[in-house]
Structure formats: structure tokens, C-alpha cells
Design brief:
This protein is an alpha/beta fold and 328 residues long. The chain contains 14 helices and twelve strands. Helix 9 crosses helix 14, helix 10 packs across helix 11 and helix 12 runs antiparallel to helix 14. The termini are far apart.
């Protein structure tokens, strides 16, 4: 497994990515629209809510930034786009934290703690052990793979005990719904979509079941983006974060509008999220709590072979910049 992970990391550096996003200028173009950036996100409450709020509240304009958004199906693809200068910023879930930890980007802001990830199984399979020898779909390098690894580890099993089938999230939705796979490591809000086709599916493992587990989501920047631009963007994210904390219901409505989905779907997704105020995130950065979360993730990724060794959290989380830009 470790060799495949190292090859994947190398591929992120060496392989170009075909996107409909034009190559950007590392966020340092200060034309008439201010600093221009390209920002990636995943179509869920975590990934979309702060961007929707920033638009609604005029926060980009307030801080002299012009932001263009691009939606992605997962975090690793955004990290690749950062490496090829097709994005300046992106949003990742906990399962992709091994990529900034390996030097492929910098975390500029923690977003939330999330408990949205599950291992699901076809009706009749009631435990992770029931997936032994069966086909399990998983988006590699994501939180879907993370929860699958955690569940297998807890059961005294490994990936060798199942038939792992690498596929992206949307493909898992169709493959599971049509019975082509027996299980999947996947997340909300995709699970309710699957349930419409397979209402008796079984959630055999959840990040909520991991004792003491903290699973942060984050906003990441490309390594070539300037500190000045990072400060501007963090200020926008910090103000949007406080608005979200004070206007939970309104934030769901704004995210639903950006995502073009129902408010009920976004509300159900948001139920798997723990938000924090910016002051709380600043305090948790200063007292080492955030570093502790990231250290815990790195320890896990060393066990899975996604990291060769555990890095210092300060090497990929710009905590000093965050407290400077977001501090009140």
C-alpha cells in the first residue's frame, strides 16, 4: 500500500490535469478587480457554505479579492489542480489531509469538524466483517478510504480482506445503487442519494463511532500563493465563518442556493458538521489543539502507508498566518 501511495503523490506533481479552469496566476493579479483567485470546493455544506456567505455578504470585495469558483468531486483532485496552478485555493475533507502533510499544499484555515463519513453495505450485510471477500468501492485518498481503513482496523482486518474497487464518489452512487458493489466507503450528502435507490442499505461504520476521533476539514492554498494573498483570503473565510456561526439556518439556505439543491438536503448534510467560531479556532490554534488534530491524522496516515513519516503540523498548517489574519 505504501508504494502505491508514494506513486500517487509523485503523480500529483508530475501529471497535468485537464480542467475547464484556465491556468491562474497564483493569486497575485491585482488588476481592476483586485487580487484574482480561483477557488475549488466540494458540493457539500462544508465546502460551499463559507463561499456562499462570502458572496452574499460582499466579503471578497471588502478585502480586495475577486474569486472564481470551481466544483470538484473530492479533495485530491483539487490538490492536483493546485500543483498545476489551475487553482489557488481548495477545500478538503479529513481523508485528504495526507496531501498537505506530504508537502503538496498548505492549510490556511480549518473549516469544521466533520462526522459525515460512513462504510455502507448492501441489505443483509450487517457488519464490516460481512464485507470480507466482497467488492467495496472507495474514492482513493479521500475520507471514504479513511473511514474504510478505520473500520477495518477496528475489526482487526485490512484492505487485503476485501476486494477494493477504486472509483470516484458519483460512480459509487451508481455502482452501489445497481448492485455492482457490495459496500462502499463514502460520505454525506451522497449517501441519501444512494438511499433513494437502496432504502435498506446498512451503515456498518461511521466516523461518529471512532472514540476520541477529531476529523477536521480545511481550506488549502497552493504553495506558490503569496502570504499577502493568503492573509486576504483568510480574513474573508474568518468573517464568513463567524457569520455562519451566528446564522446557521441562513447559511444552509445560501449553501443550497450555490449548490442548486434543496435546503432539506443541505440541512441533513449540515447535521454531520461541528462548526466553531473564528475566536475558538484562533484559540485552538494558539494552544496546540489544531496541531493535535493534525498530528492524529498524520499518525493514521503513517499507519495506512499514505505518509512515510509523521511531519510537524507547523510544516503544512500556517497557524501563525491564521491567528494574525483572523485574530480579533
Amino acid at each position: 500500500m505504501a508504494l502505491s501511495r508514494r506513486a500517487f503523490i509523485a503523480g500529483l506533481s508530475a501529471t497535468g490535469l485537464s480542467l475547464s479552469v484556465a491556468a491562474c496566476s497564483s493569486g497575485d493579479d491585482s488588476g481592476s478587480g483586485g487580487t484574482k483567485i480561483k477557488f475549488g470546493y466540494i458540493a457539500d455544506y462544508n465546502g460551499a457554505s463559507l463561499l456562499a456567505i462570502a458572496d452574499d455578504q460582499g466579503l471578497w470585495e471588502k478585502h480586495g479579492v475577486s474569486a472564481e469558483y470551481k466544483v470538484f468531486v473530492n479533495g485530491p483532485i483539487q490538490i492536483q489542480a493546485l500543483g498545476t496552478n489551475n487553482l489557488d485555493y481548495g477545500y478538503i475533507g479529513p481523508g485528504a489531509m495526507w496531501l498537505p502533510a506530504s508537502g503538496k499544499s498548505k492549510i490556511v484555515a480549518i473549516d469544521t469538524l466533520t462526522f459525515a463519513d460512513r462504510v455502507i453495505a448492501q441489505p443483509g450485510i450487517t457488519s464490516i466483517e460481512g464485507l470480507k471477500g466482497k467488492k467495496v468501492g472507495v474514492p482513493e485518498g479521500t475520507s471514504g478510504e479513511m473511514i474504510l481503513n478505520l473500520a477495518l482496523e477496528k475489526a482487526g482486518m485490512s484492505m487485503d480482506d476485501i476486494k477494493k474497487v477504486a472509483m470516484d464518489g458519483p460512480t459509487i452512487v451508481s455502482a452501489f445503487s445497481s448492485g455492482q458493489i457490495d459496500g462502499a466507503g463514502i460520505w454525506y450528502p451522497l449517501i441519501p442519494t444512494i438511499k433513494k435507490k437502496v432504502p435498506k442499505l446498512v451503515e456498518v461504520a461511521s466516523t461518529r463511532d471512532v472514540e476520541g476521533g477529531n476529523f477536521p476539514t480545511a481550506f488549502v492554498a497552493g504553495n506558490k500563493v503569496s502570504e499577502k494573498t493568503n492573509e486576504k483570503v483568510v480574513k474573508v473565510l474568518a468573517e464568513a465563518n463567524d457569520w455562519r456561526a451566528a446564522h446557521a439556518e441562513e447559511s444552509v439556505k445560501l449553501a443550497a442556493k450555490l449548490l442548486k439543491v434543496s435546503e432539506d438536503d443541505v440541512k441533513a448534510d449540515a447535521a454531520n458538521v461541528e462548526t466553531m467560531t473564528t475566536a475558538d479556532l484562533v484559540a485552538k490554534t494558539k494552544d496546540g489543539t489544531v496541531d493535535g488534530w493534525l498530528d492524529g491524522m498524520s499518525d493514521f496516515f503513517v499507519r495506512t502507508g499514505q505518509l512515510e513519516k509523521k511531519p510537524e503540523a507547523s510544516s503544512f498548517y500556517t497557524g501563525d498566518l491564521y491567528t494574525k489574519a483572523a485574530g480579533k
